[in-house]
Structure formats: C-alpha cells, structure tokens
Write a structure and sequence with these properties.
33% of the residues lie in helices and 22% in strands. It is an alpha/beta fold. It is globular and about 55 Å long.
Length: 254
C-alpha cells in the first residue's frame, strides 16, 4: 500500500540495463531495478506497450523496486533495431507487429534469468498495459513458472477470427483453460479496446474454466489511464488500481 513506509528505515536500489540470454548466440536488453540488500525478493516482469520500450516502463520498474521487488522490463522490440522508443515500435507496426512467439520466448528467458539471481525468492509475476496486457495474459497461458498475472486493459485478448494476423495468430481468450496463475484485470469502462463487453466475455470464460481471478473496472476511465503524459490519465483511478496491483502481487509473490 502507498506510504506504508518507516521514516527511519534504510532504502536504496540499483537500476541498470542488463542482457538476458535468449540462446548461446543471442541476448535481449532489459531494464532491471532491485532493492539493495540480500533479499530474497519476488520478481516482476514488465512487458512494454506499443509506445515502445520507453521511460514509463523504467519508472514502473523503479516503483516496484521501491516496494521490494526485482523488476525487469525486456526490450521486446529489439529485433527491429535501436533508436527512440516511438521509432522502434513504429518499425514493429510497419512489419505487422512483434510476434507472439518472440514475446513469449523473451518472457520465458526473462523469467529464467530472474529466478537464477541469488537474491530472488523464486516467485515471478508479470504485468503489461495495452498490447503488453494482452501479452501478459498470453504469457500466463504459455510461459512456465509464473506465479501471478496482471492484465491492464489488454486489447485484443478477445479477437474475432477474421482479425487474427501472422504475428498474433491466436486469440488469447481461446487459451484460457491453460492459464496457470491467478489473474488480476484492471479496466476502464470507457475503453474501446477492450470494450466493457470484451471484458464481460473474458470474465465469463475465466468462470467457465474455474480460474482464480479478480477484475476491477473504473468509471470515468478509458484506455491507458495510468499514462500521466496523456489526457487519458486519471490520477484517482490510477492510484487506486496501483494499490490493487501491490495487494495482488503481495498476496501471490511473497
């Protein structure tokens, strides 16, 4: 929870760019932050959204670390080169998007890297916003070893068959039976992707398969309401839902 800190406690963190091994020949850059101490600490993987591997992902990582997590955000767009986040994600869009298989391979490698760290407690959660929310849910169904999943307004979890693409060939909702970790969903009732109806469909599928989940839906909030650099930002709803995320990860990753 916010401001549950002791003013006489020592606090410090380390934040840096690291390289996560995908194979013997290939690495993936990732931004990682962690509390300075012996731990052990739980881990959180932050999947970037379509604006790119940007400053918001780094700030989110440091926010998690200030609450006692090893946080790591892999550059899922690295195969498209380097430059400004918007430039690189733009190249990904032009190419039809980063493929689900690529993101899942990067996520699995990032999880394996996290749990190998001597200060890890072995438990890892994942969170993403927008397309990253879709990838987070997909990872909950396809990646081995996750202990908690947070989907923040993940668009196209519910995808009609005629809207599937070579990069995204499967609607994640069709894999709900494979979801292997508790799920938290954060949504705005004014969002158009996902719409409230999409969220209803998603919730019914989770109920059908007996999955552990909790959804929180916010009035007067649309897409990307955590993004304080946009008009979409809603500070009250954002801070309340951040609290829900910390409660959820605290329950499942401690």
């Amino acid at each position: 929870m916010w401001n549950q800190i002791k003013t006489d406690e020592y606090e410090a963190m380390l934040a840096e760019t690291v390289k996560v091994p995908l194979s013997k020949e290939e690495n993936r850059r990732a931004y990682m932050s962690r509390p300075l101490g012996n731990g052990p600490y739980p881990g959180v993987i932050i999947i970037p959204h379509m604006p790119g591997w940007d400053e918001l992902n780094r700030e989110m990582a440091r926010r998690f670390s200030s609450h006692g997590y090893i946080a790591i955000s892999p550059n899922i767009f690295e195969e498209f080169g380097h430059g400004l986040p918007s430039e690189v994600s733009g190249k990904a869009r032009e190419a039809g998007g980063v493929t689900d298989d690529s993101v899942m391979a990067t996520t699995q490698a990032t999880l394996d890297y996290l749990v190998s760290l001597p200060y890890s407690n072995g438990k890892v959660g994942i969170i993403g916003m927008c397309s990253g929310g879709r990838h987070a849910f997909l990872a909950g169904c396809r990646v081995e070893g996750l202990s908690a999943v947070v989907d923040c307004w993940g668009g196209r979890v519910v995808t009609p068959e005629d809207q599937l693409t070579p990069a995204n060939p499967v609607a994640p909702i069709s894999l709900t039976a494979q979801l292997s970790a508790p799920l938290l969903g954060i949504f705005g009732n004014e969002d158009r992707s996902p719409t409230p109806e999409d969220v209803n469909i998603h919730e019914e599928e989770l109920k059908k398969h007996g999955k552990e989940y909790e959804f929180h839906r916010y009035d007067d909030a649309g897409h990307a309401f955590w993004s304080y650099d946009r008009e979409a930002y809603r500070p009250v709803q954002a801070m309340d839902s951040w609290g829900k995320v910390f409660d959820f990860f605290g329950k499942h990753l401690s």
